[in-house]
């Protein structure tokens, strides 16, 4: 783990915090499809999912002055997106018990057998979904999600265009979503989707 005494600020994050609109567009293009897929699966509505994406990214843009204090931009987006989606589900006519259980899963440590079992089952299903991806999609997804590489870093490492990386990642996410919809339901499905896409 890196020493916190040396603070390395992500250049994209710095540009965002300074109000650079091109940086915001880059940030949006890189991460919006992740947020959209989660919101779509949770709401079953393209309109609601699109609205949520706009609201989440708008909130980040409006609060951009706080970004220099953020150490992990992707993690910051994850927390904002997850909380926004769950809060919107709670406000709506969705199953309150389900939403509360999902929120508890992500806000409490897995120190009880139910939480641990749900986590184990969700990770198992997600691993299966990733294993079913075509080789290139799986590699690109793992480099992005598990290794934390950005799209341009993946493009350089694999000697392919950033456009190819973006398309392969979008296709991988779509294939994962389809697999999860067939293989899981309820809380397991919800946890898998949030873990896979955010």
Tell me about this structure:
This protein has helices spanning 11-17, 21-43, 46-62, 73-91, 96-107, 113-131, 135-145, 151-158, 162-183, 186-197. It is mostly helical. It folds into 2 domains: 10-94, Rna Polymerase Sigma Factor, Chain: A (Orthogonal Bundle); 111-198, Arc Repressor Mutant, subunit A (Orthogonal Bundle).
Q: Which helices and strands appear, and what pairs or packs with what?
A:
Blueprint: H1 11-17, H2 21-43, H3 46-62, H4 73-91, H5 96-107, H6 113-131, H7 135-145, H8 151-158, H9 162-183, H10 186-197
Low-confidence stretches are: 1-8
- The radius of gyration is 17 Å
CATH fold-level assignment of the largest domain: Arc Repressor Mutant, subunit A
Distance between the ends: 21 Å
What is the CATH architecture assignment of the largest domain? Orthogonal Bundle
Name its key features.
single chain; 198 residues; mainly alpha; Rna Polymerase Sigma Factor, Chain: A; Arc Repressor Mutant, subunit A; 2 domains; 10 helices; 0% strand; globular
């Amino acid at each position: 783990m890196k020493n916190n005494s040396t603070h390395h600020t992500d250049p994209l994050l710095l540009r965002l915090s300074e109000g650079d609109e091109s940086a915001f567009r880059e940030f949006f293009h890189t991460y919006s499809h992740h947020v959209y897929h989660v919101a779509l699966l949770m709401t079953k509505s393209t309109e609601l999912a699109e609205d949520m994406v706009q609201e989440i990214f708008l909130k980040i843009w409006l609060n951009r002055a706080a970004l220099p204090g953020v150490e992990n931009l992707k993690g910051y987006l994850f927390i904002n997106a997850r909380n926004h989606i769950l809060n919107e589900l709670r406000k709506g006519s969705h199953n309150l018990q389900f939403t509360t259980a999902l929120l508890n899963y992500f806000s409490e440590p897995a120190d009880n057998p139910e939480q641990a079992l749900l986590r184990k089952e969700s990770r198992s299903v997600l691993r299966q979904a990733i294993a079913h991806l075509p080789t290139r999609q799986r590699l690109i997804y793992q480099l992005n999600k598990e290794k934390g590489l950005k799209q341009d870093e993946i493009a350089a490492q694999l000697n392919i265009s950033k456009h190819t990386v973006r398309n392969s990642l979008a296709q991988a996410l779509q294939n994962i979503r389809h697999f999860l919809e067939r293989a899981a339901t309820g809380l397991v499905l919800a946890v898998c989707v949030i873990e896979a896409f955010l």
